[in-house]
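Weekly sync notes, structure subgroup
Attendees: PM, AL, DS (notes)

Item 1: joint prediction request from the bench team. They want all two components modeled as one assembly rather than separately. Inputs as received:
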Amino acid sequence: MRVDPPDPVARVRRRASETGSWVERHALTLVAAVTAAVLVVMFYFPVGTVLVEAVVVDGRVTAAPLVDVLTSEFYLVDIFWFTAYQALLSTVASVALGLPGAWVLARFDFPGRETLRSLTILPFVMPSIMVAIGFVATFGRNGTLNAVLGAAGLPRVELLFTLPAIVIAHAFYNAPLVARVTTAAWESVDASAIETARSLGASPTRAFVDVVVPQLLPAIAIGATLTFVFTFASFPIVLALGGFQLATVEVFVYSRIQNLAYAEAAALAAVETVISLGLTYLYLRYEGRQRGDGQGARPQPRRSVWPASWGLREAAARVAIGGYAVVVLAVFVVPIASMVLTSLTAGGEFTLDHYRFLLERQRTGASYQVRPLPAIRNSLLFGGGTLLVAVPMGVVLAVLTTRRFRGRAAVDALTMAPLAVSGLVVGLGLLRGLVFGVEVFGTRLRVTGGLAIVAAHAVGAYPFVTRSVAPLLGNLDSRLVESARSLGATRARALLDIELPLVAAGVVAGAAFAFAISIGEFDSTVVLAEGSTSYTMPVALERYLGRRLGPATAMGCVLLAVTSLSFVVIERFGDRYGGQGGF
Amino acid sequence: MRLSIENVRKAYGDTVALGESGDGDPGGRVDEGSDLGGVTLDVDHGEFFTLVGPSGCGKTTTLRLVAGFDAPTAGTVRFDGRRMDGVPPEGRNVGVVFQNYALFPHLSVAENVAYGLRFADPPGGETREERVGSLLDLVDLPDAGGRDPAELSGGQRQRVALARALAPGPDLLLLDEPMSALDARLRERLRLQIKEIQSELGVTTLYVTHDQEEALAVSDRVAVMSAGAIEQVGVPREIYRRPATRFVAAFVGDNNVFEGTVRSVRTVGDDDGRDAAGDASPESPVETKGVGSGRGGARGDGTRAYAVTVDVDGTAVPLRTRESVPPDGRVTFCVRPERMTVLDAGDGGDGGSGVDAVRPGRDERTGRVDGHDAVTLDATVSNAEFLGDSTRTYLRWNGRELTVRSPDPLSGDVQVGFDGVDAHVIDVESRSEPGSE
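Output from the run, pasted for the record:
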């Protein structure tokens, strides 16, 4: 067979692509510039507004609000110290609850193990205000716990508005995270390393201490640090379960905003943001050093939970697992079950009254009252808007962070900063900046609350898209792109033809994350939702919570259904190529 | 297409991957204007040119610079005289085949082969479908078009990768260790197939491998690289028979390298030396390190040869060479194991019966073969490997390690010898400068 050399037409076409259309050559740069602009408008400008308000009062630069905060015993002890204290307790509780989970998931085999492992991602997509409702339904005066105690003839307990309730709720959120990262580390411990230690004379316990534990510690540290960062900035759970008696910084900032004391709120928020950013920076530095081992390890074989022979050792382990299962049931299943149960019962009888109430309130409610349908509609609308903004942004940033260029570390940090800044601060900034209006060249620019809410949600959601997509992109063989380019594709074309189709699963999982986060977002929405027009399901839920637990739980069930759907999508696509994102 | 690489250097930060690293300068700084040497190469139209060397020698770096995946720190790459500075990979019309195939996993085999045709019309007036079909025929996978790359074996995937690279009719084919992931038997079959397709299409080819046997087997010409520099460029026979440097002598095939001081030099007629007579083909002289002057350079003075006696650790070794040797010089030379003759197979052999089978006509008493000078060495067997068709035996002689090939296993104390015309002089060093000793 004879294959002819390339004919002149092909050569001319090549020459044309050689010169290349300028736009195609620079497509990535242009998209990156647009993304940067959006990020500035949606995040850096609003947060900057808050920081400026902390030092500029009535047009004059002053350190007074900051000095007030930093010298007041009330703020330092009652607010900041309490915030750190409850975060510390929550971290300890989360690690204590998460580690046995990692042990069971990594070392034992049982039906549903894979599903259980997947479920550890669920708290991330659960609206925190919904979890708070679940805890109210469980630990409240007429909650499940007291019903059980009452039935057993025991005295009732009052856990609501106490520190333990907050700590347990935080453990609900963060113990699965600790379990998740620790399980991953445990599974990447190479069985050959343990076998080598054993063959050199180490007992099983000694081999565990010498080989396994050192490889678990970094993961535990990562889980604990993340837990501390998250619980330090926790808002809806403390608001719902602690009230203003047990106020963290976030809750107190919120109360200042409600009282229109913006300067004080800004000063508090500025201090909190600096602390959060510092913690996150430390975390990222530590995490960056820990990456990249355990590839290709042969994991240890799992034991069955139902052993073939019952020795003392086996029996003890199974008793421990059984006890742990009861605790897991109490902390994770009971609150959700209580919420569903409460929404379906009144006075011990099965009823759909609470759902009926939602519909009735819809029909007859006054315009100032919180009606359910607009809440659902707004939630879905903002969720869709968030997808439109966060998915392209997250994908573009994932592409940027997986490429090599000067200043990449800085870009990484700047794009991941929204993870460290609380939604409340972003919401406050958007409110004071864009919603109240900005003077640009003599024209007053304003955006509506709805748009601001989408912006706030997108800011909170796109890092999850980036972290779902970036690892997949990073794992792609660079030679795929090089092959495509040597075959004539431009860089942008190779991205569209080769890379994006191969990380589509990550994009879908990221989108589901983004949608779930938007649906459940409370922190900034509660600040930005104007009276009766742009409230969402979580905000409606919180407004019902004060007065009527039944309808609140019914609303919570609707939220549960939506977020569960998102979870299914994430689960279906997120693990496709073996890697869960950065979380 | 003619590929020229002119004085090209590549550094990643402080690490020099290609070109001289600046001896005596520990930082290895890279100055654009400095006169540090780079790599220079010319590949002729239609030539199968191979870069071979150990890992880290800069061969893949060179290929990546030619493909346009990386830019050289200094120097120029030219395609048919056209400077390629700043031309992206998609503008170079090259086909690249990687070791790990790099097939697009989300596209079928046919779609993979057709990918390059999205950006260029198929050559020869074929439609895209016809082109894909003829390429799959060419690589002997006519029915694989509808399959998923994951369903194919390693060798099949590599052939699909080759078809994909060839589909747009590239001016230059770049093969980066294309067979290193395959098992030995398959590798031998596939390299024959690649060579066949290459000469059928007449496409200029730059082939990168660490396997010197593969390099010798398939190439028109070979460049041996080490530590970012080219040690020698030449046709495979020349590389094997006349290594230009110690490195080439040791890297390409097994070799015994000796050095010694000159005792005497005598000019002899050309017909007296095996180099010009017998099985030695008229080859170009050895190209020296770092200089690639292309094939068919000027021949040396073919009418003159020197008979040199070299003192190696007290043993007088007679050599034949065309290089002029100063009377008090220091000489490095090598002898291939298969050119070493076992004179006495020691305790293990059956009375040295294999000796005559190796080199008939040798006078065992004088060690002279066919009237030439020869030398005999008394050595001790230290180790042996049975290779099937022969045995590779490691000997110790005067504290040096020697390797010989023999049909039968050896052991104990043996006598081995070689003929002066079978020794190749690698390096001659004059000792006349003061202080050099």
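Discussion: The first helix of chain A runs from residue 8 to 19.
Action: AL to compare against the crosslinking data before next sync.
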